[in-house]
Amino acid sequence: MYRTHNCGELRISNIDNEVTLSGWVQRVRKLGGMTFVDLRDRYGISQLVFDENSSEELKNKVDELGREYVIKVSGKVIERASKNKKIPTGEVEIVVDTLDILSKSDTPPFTIEDNTDGGDEIRMKYRYLDIRRNPVRSGLELRHRVAQEVRRYLDSQNFLEIETPYLIKSTPEGARDFIVPSRMNPNQFYALPQSPQTFKQLLMIAGCDRYFQIVKCFRDEDLRADRQPEFTQIDCEMSFVEQDDVLNTFEGMTRHLFKTVKDVELADFPKMTYADAMKYYGSDKPDIRFGMRFVELKEIVGGKDFVVFDSAEYVGAICAEGCAEYTRKKLDALTKFVQKPQIGAKGLVYVKYNADGTFKSSVDKFYAQEDLAKWAEATNAKPGDLILVLAGDKAKTQSALCELRLHMGNELGLRDPEVFAPMWVVDFPLLEWDEDSNRYHAMHHPFTSPREEDIELFNTNPGEIRAKAYDLVINGVEIGGGSIRIHNTELQKQMFKHLGFSDEEAEEQFGFLMDAFKYGAPPHGGVAFGFDRLVSMFGGSESIRDFIAFPKNNSGRDVMIEAPSMVADDQLKELNLNIIKVEQED
Amino acid sequence: MYRTHNCGELRISNIDNEVTLSGWVQRVRKLGGMTFVDLRDRYGISQLVFDENSSEELKNKVDELGREYVIKVSGKVIERASKNKKIPTGEVEIVVDTLDILSKSDTPPFTIEDNTDGGDEIRMKYRYLDIRRNPVRSGLELRHRVAQEVRRYLDSQNFLEIETPYLIKSTPEGARDFIVPSRMNPNQFYALPQSPQTFKQLLMIAGCDRYFQIVKCFRDEDLRADRQPEFTQIDCEMSFVEQDDVLNTFEGMTRHLFKTVKDVELADFPKMTYADAMKYYGSDKPDIRFGMRFVELKEIVGGKDFVVFDSAEYVGAICAEGCAEYTRKKLDALTKFVQKPQIGAKGLVYVKYNADGTFKSSVDKFYAQEDLAKWAEATNAKPGDLILVLAGDKAKTQSALCELRLHMGNELGLRDPEVFAPMWVVDFPLLEWDEDSNRYHAMHHPFTSPREEDIELFNTNPGEIRAKAYDLVINGVEIGGGSIRIHNTELQKQMFKHLGFSDEEAEEQFGFLMDAFKYGAPPHGGVAFGFDRLVSMFGGSESIRDFIAFPKNNSGRDVMIEAPSMVADDQLKELNLNIIKVEQED
Predict the structure, then answer these.
(1) What phi and psi values does residue A495 have, to the nearest 5 degrees?
(2) Could A131 and B206 be called an inter-chain contact, meaning their C-beta atoms sit closer than 8 Å?
(3) Strand A230-239 relative to strand A524-530, pairing
(4) pLDDT grade, residue B171 (50/70/90)?
(5) Which of residues 60-99 of B touch A (CB under 8 A)?
(6) What is residue B141's predicted lDDT score, i.e. its pLDDT?
(7) Residue B427 burial by CB count (10 A; 0-12/13-18/19+): exposed, middle or buried?
(8) Alpha-carbon dihedral of residues A219, A225, A231, A236, nearest 10 degrees?
(9) Are A398 and A314 in the same domain?
(10) In terms of residue numbers, what domain contains A80?
(11) What is the ipTM of this complex?
C-alpha cells in the first residue's frame, strides 16, 4: 500500500498514528543533525523528520533525495515543536522509520513553486511540471468544480446531456472549419464542429425538450491573444420557451454556480437593451461594477465656435468622481491613452469642477463658466469631479469613450475582481450591414428570430429589426449568448432571402435542418457559454490558458507534444491526398 | 407562456385546474360529436377533448390537425369517464377552450410509435423523428442518467474531470488515426485521439492524483458491425495505487451505477485469471451467468482407437443439464451450429446420460458404457444430462466450445438480460506473438507493467509474462479494461527493446512521455470503459447505435447530414492540399 493518508490530511488528532505517505519532495532542509523534508501531493504538504535516531541506511537514503523525487515513507505522527499556522498540516510532522524512493527526478527546468522562475515558453513545453504548481493545479480543480455544478444544476432542471457528433459536415458560412479527410469515403471530408448549433436544434425537433452539453468546439481562425483553436462551450437548448424562460433558467444556473463555487449570493440580473448599452457604455458588454455612464453633450455644446464639437456627429462625456485634482501630467497621460491607435480618439477635452465651485477646462477659450456649469449639470458632476469629453464619429467615439471609462475604472479601483456584476444585454439587432459584401449579415446566426413587432421592418429598414437575442455579461466580459430561434419555415425562408441566400444555397447549406422543420418544429431557443472564459472569471484571471490543462500557443501548436507534425507518406496516400510543399520558415 | 404543465404531469389532483399544454399530436380520434387528441412531449401523453360545446372555430381548427403537428392548448382538467390505467395521466383529460397550431407537419416518413413501420435506413436519415419514439428517446435518457452518476461517484472519490486536447499528434502505432490538416502550420497535421492514454499518464506525472473524463475517441478502422468511428470512453487514472486499489474503486463505481440506475444490488465481483478464463470458458470475457464450465477429457478418452480424439491436441466437454432428451433433429442442429465457418469445429460428439442410468452416445462404437460413465463423472453429469464434446487444435477448439456453451446458454434460457454477472479477468499476458511481424506485441499497450515476479521471464519465455492488466466483464461483454503502468524508466526501456523498438523509434514516438518520466513519475494505473457499450448493457440491448443520438452507418457516414462530403477547392488550397481523384462507385 502506497499511503494510509494523503499529504494534506494529517492533523493534531492523528498524533501517535503510524502512517504511510507518498508524494513528491518539495524541499529538503538540514538543521544540525536533523533533516526536514516537505512532502507534497495534490492535497497538501506534510513535514517529514529524520533525526539522530534514524538508522545509517535511512540517513544515507535521505542524502540521496533531490527536488521532485517521488518517495514513500512510513512513520509516526508527532506534534511539531514549532508550528506552521499557514498550512492545515502545520501542527504535526512525521518521524520517518522507512523510506522508499519510488522514482528519481532530474533537476526540473524551473522551480515548482507558486512563483516560479520559469518563463511562459518553458512552462508550456513542460506543462506536466507546471501543473504541479498550486496556481495551475487549483485552476484545473476550479474548472472541475464548475463543470460538476453546471451539470448538477441542469440535471435538476430536467436537461438531458446529449453528445452530438464531432465528425460532421463542412459549411462555408461563418469561421473556417477544420476538416478531416475520410479514407472510407475517398475525396470526401468531415468537418469538426464550430458549435453543435444545428444538432441542438434538431434535438428540439426530436422532442428532447431540454438539452445541454459541455462540449469541445473548433475554429480554424488566426489566433488573437487568448483564443484557442479548440475551446469548450456549455451548450444548451430548450423547447416551448419565450426569451424570459431562457433568461430565468440560466440566471438560475449562474446564481447556483456563484453560490456553490464562490459562496457569493447574486441579486437579480438587470436587463439592458443593446441600444442602451451602446448609449450609456459604448459597448454591448458593459462593465456595470461602476457607474460613470456616458452623457451626450452635443445639444448643449454647440454654437460656441469650437469647431471640433460643432463638426462632430457625437459629443460624449463621463464624470470621474473626485478627480478634479488630477495633475497636468495625469491629464496628459489620459490624452495619450485615448490617442493610442487601438483607441483612436483625436484628443481629449477635460473640465475640472474645482472644490471651490469654479471650473477649469482645456476649452476655456470657447466656453464660459456658465457653459461649463451646464455640462456639470448634465453629467451630474459635483465639486471635486473631473469631466472627460470625447467627440467625433459616433460609433468610433463611443468605443473610445468606453475604453476611457474602463481605464478610469481601473485607475480608481472600481473593478474589483472579487465583485461580480452580471447582466443581460437584450434586443440585439437582427442584422448588420457588411460593407465588403454589400449586404446584411445575421448578427447572431441565420436561425435567430426577430421580434414579432419588428418583422414589418424587413421591407423598410432591416437594420432596425431587433432580434430575440441576448448575452450574459459579467464584469464587462461576454460569458454567454443565445437567442430564440425561428421555428416557422416561411419566416426562415424570408430570413434567408434577406441574407442574400438563393433557395439553392439555403437548401445546400441548411437543407437537412429545413427538412426537419417540415415535420413539426417546437418553438425553441437556447444559449451557449464560453466555458474557458467562465472558469477564468471565477478564477479572477483574464487568461483562459491558465484554466486549460494542455493549451495551444498562438500558432495553434502544442509545444509539449510537438503537434501538429508531418505525417507519413503512406498515411496521405491512403487518404488520396498530395501535399503542396510550402517552404518552412525556421 | 407555452405551458403550465408538461404532457406527463397531470393527475387526478389537478381536476378543475385551468392548464396550458404544448406538444405534438400523436393521434386524433373522432367518436360521435367528440374528438380526442393525444398530445405528446418528452414527459408523456395527455388526452385532449373537443366536444359538441366547442365553438365552430375550434372544431374547424381540430379538423386541420394531422400527426406530428405542434400545438398549444388551454382548458380545464376533468376526470375521464373511461380511465386508461396504462399511462400516469390516464385518469384525466383536458377539455380544450383554445387551440393554437404552432407548427404544421408533413406526414412523417414512418410512424412515430414504439413499434414503427420504418426501416433502419429511413430512420437514420430522419433520426430527429426516430428520436421522438419512446425506445430511442429513453435510450438517450438512460445514457444521460448513467453519465451523471459516473461523474457523481468519481467526484465523490476525489477524481478530477480534466479535458485533454482533441487536436494532438499522430503516432504510427495501433489503429489508424484520423488526421486534421493545419492551415497555420503548412504541410503539418494534427491527429484526433484514439484515447487520451498519454495525456492521462502525463496528468499523473503532473500530480493530479485522480483523473477522469467522459471523452470522445476516434479510430479510422474499417467498421465491423456495431463499431463507430467516434465513440465515447470513461477514461480514468489514479496515482499511488496497486492493482487492487483500481479494481476496488471501479467495482465501487459499477456497483453505484447498478444501484442508482437500475436499482440492482451487486455482490462482490469475482476475480478470475486469464488462464482460468481460457481453461474453463475458452474466452477472456466469460459469461458467468451460468455454469457449464469446460472439462478437459483428453486424459480419459485416449487409447480406444477413436482417431479423432487420439490425434487431437485438446478434447473438451460441457454438460448441458436436463438435455438428455434432445431429439436427433436437435442434435443435428447443434452439429451444424459448431460446423458453421465462423465457429469452425469439424464435428460434435454427444453423450446422452439417460434417466435410467444408461448412456447413448455418437461414439458408442468406440466407447463402452463404463468409459462413458467416466466422462460423466469428470463432467459432473447426472442422469438426464447431455454431454457435448469437441476436439482438435487447442485454441480453436476452446473458442468453438465457448460458442457452443453460449449457444446452449441461450437455448436453455440461462442468459437473462436482467441478470447481471460482473467479474474481473486479471493476469493477462503482457505480450502476444505476432506471426506477421515475427515479434512480440504488447497485448494491452507498451506502458503496461509486468508482474514483478515474472520480469525474469523476459530472457527465457516472454510469452509467459503476466501483466498487471485487467478487464471488467459483465455477462460476457468486455465493459472496460486497464492496467498498472510502468513508472520506471529502465523497465520501460527494457519493454521497448523486447517489443522491437530501437531507441530512436521509442524516442520519436513516445519521446515526450519518456521525458516526463525523468522528472518523478508516481506509480499509477487506470482503466477505460466503453461508455456506449456500458449504456447499451444497462439498456438490455446488444446494439450501441440505439444509445447514440446521431450515429454513423457502417461506411462511417452520417446519412442525415450527408457527411462526409466534398469541400470547396479554396478550402483545400488554403490547406496546401491536392486530392487524388478516385472514381466514385455509385
Answers:
(1) -60, -50
(2) yes
(3) antiparallel
(4) confident
(5) 68-70, 72
(6) 98
(7) buried
(8) -90
(9) yes
(10) 12-103
(11) 0.94
